[in-house]
Each structure stands twice: as structure tokens, then as C-alpha cells.
Amino acid sequence: MTEARTPPQGESPEAMLGVTRSVGGRRWVRRPGDERQALAISQRLGVPEVLGRVLAGRGVTVESAPVHLDPTLRALLPDPAHLRDMDRAVARLAAVVQAGETLGVFGDYDVDGATSTALLHRFFRDLGVPVRVHIPDRLEEGYGPNTPALLRLQEAGATVVITVDCGISAFEPLAEARAAGLEIIVCDHHEARAALPEALAVINPKRLDETSPHRHLAAVGVAFLLIVGVNRALRDAGWFEKAGRAPPDLMTLLDLVALGTVCDMVPLVGVNRALVRQGLKVIARRGNPGLNALAEVARVSEAMNAFHLGFLLGPRVNAGGRVGEAGMGSALLASDDPVACLEMARHLDAWNAARKDIEAEVLAQAIEQAESAPPADVPLVFVVGRDWHPGVLGIVASRLKERYGLPACVVALEGGLAKGSGRSVTGLDLGRAVIAAREAGLLEAGGGHAMAAGFTVTEAALPAFRAFLGEGLLAQKGEDMLESRLDLDGLLDVKGVTPDLVRALDQAGPFGAGNPDPVFALPGVRVIRADVVGTGHVRCILGGVGGGSLKGMAFRAADSEIGHALLSAGSVPVHVAGQIRADTWQGRDGVQFLIEDVARAPS
Fold it and tell me: Rounded to 5 degrees, what are φ and ψ at 357?
């Protein structure tokens, strides 16, 4: 590892290895961190120095390090009652259980919505409550609650409906449901307006009048707090003894909480970190038949981590809402029938394959459009197409964000309306910008959170919205973000990239939004061999300056400058930056390097 220096305020960070502009167009800089804290963490906790540096680079101090390394729910889970309207919701739902009423759950079609819905379904079903679930069809119904679906839940017997991962902006449908005599509890985490929808309770850590410090909870995290509150209320009322039931083990539901939290890209800090870390332990016990079936079709046999959830299981759950049956993901996760789960998982796997084909076609058109457009002076990639499938807009936006390092919005035109989805980068709040556009009257509908947003706008208003959004993001972008940078946690030699290093770094996980994977540079390596595999991935063998070799992989890079640099490097040394991953294929105890960027090295 190299020594780091935090530059004085206003001074540009020193370029590591002299890389001021890499092949990927980025300046390589040391991730900011307190060197004294790094050393103190290493010495006080007896952990490797490299781990101390990684922790310090993420704002961890010697005092907070023990909880960060061992994030328990006992230490980090808040009292559910601290959230506004939680007590009101808990009291009504406890009454639903005690009276044997029928409960409705209206969820979203993404992973956070599917896991939230399955969580509530499992919890209340285990208490003997009849549960009716509705997940809207993306094409026919669009996002969020709609009046006909809510009334159908009422016709099916529901007296109370929980809207989960949606509802905070559904003013008209919720007002109409209330007028029909249906009681609504909103359980959401998307950005809220000053006004709230008409509901019995609105639980949302992003309410403008909310004082909760836990604004970064995913919807499934909010739903978990809700069932913790209901479970406690029933226990305090002595209901379990009266009903002759054992209280449910809520810890067994943390596998769903972990999946939804990781896949919704909320920051993996604080309580989110504890939920995911403990949830991964539950997943390892393989108690959920739906998750087991997903792992089987995804060919995952090793112990799962956040990577598996985000990139292998999550996309398959999402596939039903994107191009298949919207409710199948939540149905799979709520089912206890292994045979039915495997059948549903196979359907989702097939839909995921179909989604990839559709995505590839739309992505190719989107990249062509983005790269043929004149240079923009705002931090935004914005592409528009006719007949683009609405189910892949979000994932194409994610691909564009990864490719260009900027917020990206992908828009489909149909019948005079434009429906779009966006994904953002750390430091730029896309949801806030979209909500500002909605408040300015530019949108028919829109909302989201910092990292993701969706919107509907008339085709005529699309240019004005695009300009407004770009200016809003530009206003958020500080001077220190004007240059595209890659934060590095240090330099490593090829021989130093070992399974022991992987295991040491894993102590700082789970990694994701808000707790980024450590990124290291390998200076002056040679690309011994490189070829294209799969769907445009570049696979290579890297040779170290002092000997040794290491597997490398650059995903979806074959048609990028980074991929071209690897494929054409030959014997010319290059600096390579990326992440370290365990290689457990066929029982191996190896390591591979996931390449994020390449820079030319002095020969």
C-alpha cells in the first residue's frame, strides 16, 4: 500500500501513478481518509493495515470500527415507534390480527416491492390473517396504487390495505379508496411532498416532517420495522398466549430484507448494514424455498454475498415485473412449496434471458444516440426512443450510468407521452431533481430517491423537462465533482492479491451504495492473454512486475475503450484498477480482479 496525503481544502488531489486521464477518462486519486485513524484501527483492533485504510476511507473511526465490523440489530435497529404514524399503523394492524380481518397488500413490481410484499405476506399469513396481494402490471397499470385495483382488494374482503414501496404520491387513488370505506396504510421510502396522501397512516422516513435519522431505509426495511412493531404490540397484549400461537421468529425474514435492501441501491450504512449482514447469515441457512430456487436457476452454489443478491438473484426477481408476470417475484418469495418455487424460478429465469435480449437492443440504440449527440455542459445522459420496452428503461439507465459515470435517463415515447427511468451517481440526487420538475408543473407524474427515479411527461414538454433536469443536477454538482475521478484505496502488487486479502476486506462488507467496494490499482502489469467471452466481457490474465499472475475480467467492456486497451495491450505495461473478488468456481480458493479502468504506464 502507498502512503496517502489528504490535500488542503481547494487543492486538487494528487493523481495516483500520475494518471490524470485514464483510458476511461478519469483521474485516479487516493480515496480521502484519515491516515491516523487507519493506523489506530489496525493497531487497536488487530486487523490488517489494508483493512484499516479501507475503513478510514469510508469515514469509520477507531471508536465506530467495532460496530462497523460487527453490525448487529441489537446495536443498530431503531425502535419502530420513532417513525411518525407508526403507532397508529401498528394499533390498526394488531386489531386486524386479533379480529381475523382480511388484509390487502399493494406492492411494487421491483425487487424492493417484491421483497416488502413477501415479507408482509409471510408475517401476517403466519399469524392466521387472510392476505390478498396485488402487484400492478407495468404496462397496463403503471407504477403505484390505482383506484380499480384498490377496490378489487376491498371486494376480495380486505378492510385494510398496506401500500408498500409506493403510495406516497398516490393522492387521487388513496382519496377515492378512503371514500369507498377502505383504510390505507402507506409504507414507503420515496421522496415525499409537503402534503401527504389521505390515509390512516403514512410511514415514510422521508416525510418532510419526519425527524428519523434513518432516511436511507429501503421500503423493505420500513416494512420490517412495521412488523417488529405489530409483533411487539401483540405480545404486549398477550394475544399469542390467548391464541395458542408461538410468536414468529422475525429474524428468519431478514433474508428478504437483505435482498430488497441491496437491490434498491440504498446506502449500506447504519441499520441497513446490519439488516444486510444479518440477512446474509439467514440466507446461508437456505430456509426460504423461493431464494433457494432462484439460486438453483442462477447456478449459485457458494455462500452468497451482496454481489450475488444484486447481480444474480435480484435481476431474476425483477424480470417478472419487467417483461413477464408482475406478481410472480413476490409470489415466489412468499411460497413455502419447493416444487412451485422451482417452477416460478424457471419462468423468471427465462424472462430474465428475454429481458437481456430486449435490453441489449435498446442499450445499443441508446449508446449510439448518446455518443452522436453534441457535448453537453450538464452532468446528464438523456436518451429517447420510440417503441422502447418500458420494462428495461431502468436497467439501460444503469448501464449508461456505469459507462459514462453520469446520471442517466432513458425515455420511451408512446402516444404523445414519454415515460422514463433514471439512475444516478453518488453525490447527485436524481429523485430530488425529478420531484422539483414535478412541482414546477413539467411532469404528469414523477418521483424517486437519490439513486433512482421515474417520471411521465408529455412529449411536447420533454425538451423543457430535460433542460430543467440538467440544470438541477448541475446546481448540485460541486466544484470537486467537475472532474471525473476514480477513488482508489491503494496500490497492490499482483502477488499481494490473495484469498487472505479477500477475507480481510470482506470484514468491511457488505459493500454497495454508501459503502463502496474497495478499489485498488495494479501498477505496470502486463496483459499476458486477453479474449472476449460471454456477452461482451473481456477476460484476461495479468502478469505482475515482480512475477505472479492474476485472473482479470472487465464486464461488458468489449466495445469500450477499456476493453480495447486490454485486448490490444500486448507486451506494453499498463496500470489496471478494479475490485478483488473470491474465485470459488468448482471449489477453488482463488482470486480474480474485476477491472474498472486502465491507464497507460511508462514502458
Answer: -65, -45
The whole-model pTM stands at: 0.88
What is the amino acid identity at position 3?
E
Kind of pairing between the strands at 574-583 and 549-554: unpaired
298: its cell numbers: 442462477
DSSP assigned state of 515: B
DSSP structural state of residue 309:
I
Residue written as grid cell 425474514: 253
Per-residue DSSP letter, 512? B
- d(Cα 470, Cα 394) in Å, to the nearest integer? 18
The residues with which 422 forms a beta bridge, in sequence order, are: 409, 453
- Report pLDDT for 9: 43
Which residues does 182 contact at the CB level (< 8 Å), separation at least 6? 150, 151, 153, 154, 158, 159, 160, 161
Q: Is 531 helix (H, G, I), strand (E, B) or coil?
A: strand
Q: What angle do CA 390, 391, 392 make, to 5 degrees?
A: 95
| pLDDT by 10-residue block (mean), the chain, 603 residues | 40 83 92 93 94 95 95 96 98 98 96 98 98 93 93 98 96 97 97 94 97 97 98 98 95 98 93 97 96 96 91 95 93 98 98 93 95 88 94 93 91 92 90 93 89 93 95 78 80 94 94 92 96 94 93 93 94 95 82 96 77
CB 525 within 8 A of CB 545: yes
Q: How far apart are CA 406 and CA 426, in angstroms?
A: 9
Longest CA span, the chain: 79
Count of positions (residues) in the chain: 603
DSSP-derived 3-state class of residue 305: coil
Query: What domains lie within the chain, and their CATH numbers?
Result: 16-57+489-600 (2.40.50.460), 79-348 (3.90.1640.30), 373-481 (3.10.310.30)
